[in-house]
Amino acid sequence: MTDENREKTEALSPDTERFVERLKAAYEPRPMDAVRRAALDARLRERIERPRGPVWLAPAVATAAIALLAVWGLQPGVLEAPGTAPEVARADLPTADGWEAQLYLYEGPLESDSTDEETYLPPEYAAIDDLFFDG
Amino acid sequence: MEGVISLDMAAAEPSLETRFEALVANHRDRAVRLAWRLVGGDEAAAEDVAQDALVSAYRGLARFRGDSSLDTWFYRILVRQAYSYLRWRGVRERFGRSDPEETIDPAPRATGDPLLRQRIARALDSLPRNQRDAFVLVHMEDFTVREAAEIMGKAPGTVKSHLHRALGKLRTQLEDALDPSTEADGHDG
Questions:
Q1: A106 touches chain B (CB under 8 A)
Q2: 1.10.730.10, 1.10.10.10, 2.40.110.10, 3.40.630.30: which CATH number matches B110-179?
Q3: Nearest CA to CA, how far is A123 from chain B (Å)?
Q4: Contact criterion met (CB < 8 Å) for B36 and A29
Q5: ipTM of the complex, rounded to two decimals
Q6: What is the DSSP code string of chain B?
Q7: pTM value?
């Protein structure tokens, strides 16, 4: 037993240790078999070999989208009261109960213990955050 | 995972392809199992999360310089991927767009008592994210506290604190269901 594991188990009373073992045993997924492995590998291969979009175009596309929005916003009547907005603009907006609006505005309990977000983050891990996630 | 990466792709950076193949071969099963536990016992979602994490790892592997463990680096991606999935599922459930088949799945194909499994999934789901991650990583997947701390991007002491709190909450919620003396009576779900 490693020092780390000893440290973990020593912190648990025998009763608690039994509880953890029972919980772990009761919450066990079906083991992977050869068929599932092959299917997962095939999907993985397909995704990795699939050509990615031209990532270098992303800034240009984003800039163009912002420019289009700015031009659209400068049109007379677009930024006036909702009742006077052109029909085409209103039709393009998500409705009050629309999925896009709900998703955009959602600020629900995504992380209820956000106060303990420490700054401890090894550089490589911070790089991963920057690369793949928005958090 | 033989044949996953073509030789043409490997020509540019063979060591990267070799490392990725080893990563998949060594960690695929554990990745799916960990994802299964993190996303509430949904087999299909777990495989999607594991696959997404592997794809992200493949794309980020060239930037990995080996300053830290490749294993914990990959599992950090996986845990974040699982969190992204749970966020997405939470939004869908909140606004009524969830597919019943995508919500907590008693996973009849898994082993054991499906009602108990569903109850455990709900109890884990009720924990704050860091407590759930710490508990699953350390107590269910047998990562050390230090490994879990690296994966979660937390200090080891913080992980221990999360473990303590998670354990207390889970005992409160599940003690009766996991008590050997009441097992014969079944579970009240």
A1: yes
A2: 1.10.10.10
A3: 9
A4: yes
A5: 0.77
A6: -TTSS-HHHHHH-HHHHHHHHHHHHHHHHHHHHHHHHHTTS-HHHHHHHHHHHHHHHHHHGGG--SSS-HHHHHHHHHHHHHHHHHHHHHHHHHTT---GGGS----TTSSS-HHHHHHHHHHHHHS-HHHHHHHIIIIIT---HHHHHHHHTS-HHHHHHHHHHHHHHHHHHHHHHH-HHHHTT----
A7: 0.66
